[in-house]
Amino acid sequence: MNEWLIILGIVCHAVSGVPGLFNSCHDDKGQGLSVRLAVAGSVLGMAGAIGSLWSHPVTGAMMRVDGL
Predict the structure, then answer these.
(1) Helix (DSSP H) and strand (DSSP E) numbers for the chain
(2) pTM across the whole model
(3) Contact at 8 Å (CB) between 51 and 9?
(4) Mind listing the pLDDT tens digit for each residue in 4-57?
């Protein structure tokens, strides 16, 4: 589950720049959506990182998160 939180955080950060492509620079809707996506990506990434530090090792997982 922690891996998916980190992946969703990465996806949110990757998608956060897309609203700026379709809105003018004078419109605040694109900026607000970009900020919300970036904050959501940060929160998801931090939740996944903290969760991976506190969780027990997962056996049989295809992807693991290093506690560094």
Answers:
(1) 3, 0
(2) 0.72
(3) no
(4) 999 999 999 999 989 888 887 777 888 888 999 999 999 999 998 888 777 656
Assess if residue 62 is contained within a domain. Answer: no
CB-based contacts of 45, cutoff 8 Å, min separation 6: 5, 6, 9, 10, 13
Tokens of 53: 């530090």
CA dist 57 → 19, 53, 61 (Å): 38, 10, 9
Name the phi and psi angles at 65, rounded to 5: -110, 125
User: Is residue 30 domain-resident?
Assistant: yes
Number of compact structural domains in the chain: 1
Residues spanned by the domain of 42: 2-54
